[in-house]
């Protein structure tokens, strides 16, 4: 009698764990191939696919944007639907919301860009650090 109760309890536990796990994935069912590391990274992603977010709040607001890469705290933090953006360093492309095909490298590079597409910017501090001379 006890082994039957134990088996039923184990089965019930497995079924409940499977149900809870399945429900936890319901909001990201359409999102595929994303990678995130850091508190708040890709926090609000629902359907965006193939994004990489590394750092505190990197790609925090992204919901359906695809193929974005954010490396650094607050990089692409405001992006919601922009696609194929690359932001490297703290606050790079910070205000970008819907713009696509942008590349920003350096602290606060393209900080205020919101909707301007196809821009590339290397922060002057980064250029100086690597020996650029006028």
Features:
single chain; 134 residues; alpha/beta; 2 domains; 6-stranded parallel β-sheet; 2 helices; 6 strands; 22% helix; elongated
Pick out the low-confidence regions. none
DSSP strand (E) fraction?
A: 5-15%
Q: Describe the main β-sheet briefly.
A: 6 strands, parallel
Give a count of the beta strands, DSSP E runs of length 2 or more.
Answer: 6
How many domains? The number is 2
Count of alpha and pi helical runs: 2
Structural class: alpha/beta
How much helix, percentage-wise, in residues? Answer: 10-25%
Question: What would your notes on this structure say?
Answer:
The structure is a single chain. This protein is α/β, with parallel strands linked by helices and 134 residues long. It has 2 domains: 1-27; 31-134. Helices cover 22% and strands 13% of the residues. It has 2 helices and 6 strands; from the N terminus they run αββββββα. It has helices spanning 2-24, 124-129; strands spanning 35-37, 52-54, 69-71, 86-88, 103-105, 120-122. It has a 6-stranded parallel beta sheet with strand order 1-2-3-4-5-6. The longest helix has 23 residues, at 2-24. The chain is elongated and about 65 Å long.
Topology:
Layout: H1 2-24, E1 35-37, E2 52-54, E3 69-71, E4 86-88, E5 103-105, E6 120-122, H2 124-129
Parallel strand pairs: 1-2, 2-3, 3-4, 4-5, 5-6
What's this entry about, in short?
By secondary structure, the protein is an alpha/beta fold. The protein has 2 domains: 1-27; 31-134. 22% of the residues lie in helices and 13% in strands.
């Amino acid at each position: 009698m006890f082994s039957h109760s134990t088996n039923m309890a184990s089965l019930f536990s497995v079924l409940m764990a499977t149900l809870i796990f399945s429900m936890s994935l319901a909001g990201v069912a359409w999102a595929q191939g994303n990678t995130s590391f850091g508190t708040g990274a890709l926090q609000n992603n629902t359907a965006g696919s193939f994004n990489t977010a590394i750092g505190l709040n990197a790609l925090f607001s992204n919901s359906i944007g695809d193929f974005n890469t954010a490396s650094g705290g607050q990089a692409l933090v405001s992006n919601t639907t922009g696609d194929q953006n690359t932001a490297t360093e703290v606050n790079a492309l910070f205000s970008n919301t819907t713009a696509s095909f942008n590349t920003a490298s350096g602290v606060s590079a393209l900080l205020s860009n919101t909707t301007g597409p196809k821009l590339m910017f290397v922060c002057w501090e980064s250029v100086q650090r690597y020996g650029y001379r006028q």
